[in-house]
Amino acid sequence: MFRPAMELPHPLVQGATKIRRHRAARPLAALAAGFVLSASLVFGLVTFAGAAFGIGWLPEGVRVALAGILVVGMLLVDIVSLRAGDVCKLTLRRQTPKALEDRFGPYLGTFMWGIDTGTAVTTIRVSSLTWVTIGLALLQLAPWWLGLAYGLGFSLSLAACTLLPPWRPVNAFGEPMWVQRLLTRSRPAVQVVCILGLIGFGAVAGAAVIGAL
């Protein structure tokens, strides 16, 4: 899915014509810009909403306890999803439509693709970790720039998967299929890592609450 999205004149279509790497970086930059902008706005608005409703005025111990409850709930969701061999149960079963490129072109289309996926809640999620981070922002336990960090992390990973693997000849698919296969096979491992992260955070939150008693 990565390489075709960066090729012209049809950047979101499998098997598009191979082009130079520096031209591939243009739609990639548009997608990354949309993603970073969207993620920053979503997490910034959630943080602002928490502050506007006075959540930050609650005792820190109460907010940490609420975060711990959220983590436990999302941990159970992820365990159920992993045992079922499925993605997160609390997610919309949709992906960004590829028709965006056909309607709006290789740059505006990929920018809008980034806007959609960057919201973190409108497309398929592998783990409920997304909901935990949004909850932490709402509880004023995470900084406002969390969305910016999330967006940059995604963009750098996408750039590496798109531009670093060797490009194939003009008459072959541009997509390095081993990247797709690796991502597909590694999904359960990613889910396990997210579960371990939730367990670790839950342990830290529990210790903080107990220490505050």
What would you note in describing this structure?
The chain has 213 residues and is mostly helical. It is built from 7 helices and no strands. The chain has helices spanning 21-52, 60-83, 99-118, 129-138, 146-163, 177-185, 187-212. The longest helix is centred in the first third of the chain and has 32 residues, at 21-52. The radius of gyration is 19 Å and the shape is globular. It starts with 20 loop residues before the first helix and ends with a helix. The model is unreliable at 1-19 (pLDDT under 50).
Topology:
Elements: H1 21-52, H2 60-83, H3 99-118, H4 129-138, H5 146-163, H6 177-185, H7 187-212
Helix pairs in contact: 1-3, 1-4, 1-5, 2-4, 2-7
Low-confidence stretches: 1-19
Gyration radius over CA? 19 Å
Strand content: under 5%
Q: How many individual helices? A: 7
The helix-strand sequence is HHHHHHH
Report the sheet with the most strands, covering strand number, pairing sense and barrel closure: none
Specify the helix fraction band: 55-70%
Shape: globular
End-to-end Cα distance, whole Å, is 50 Å
The chain-level mean pLDDT equals 80
What is the tally of beta strands? Answer: 0
The helix/strand class is: mainly alpha
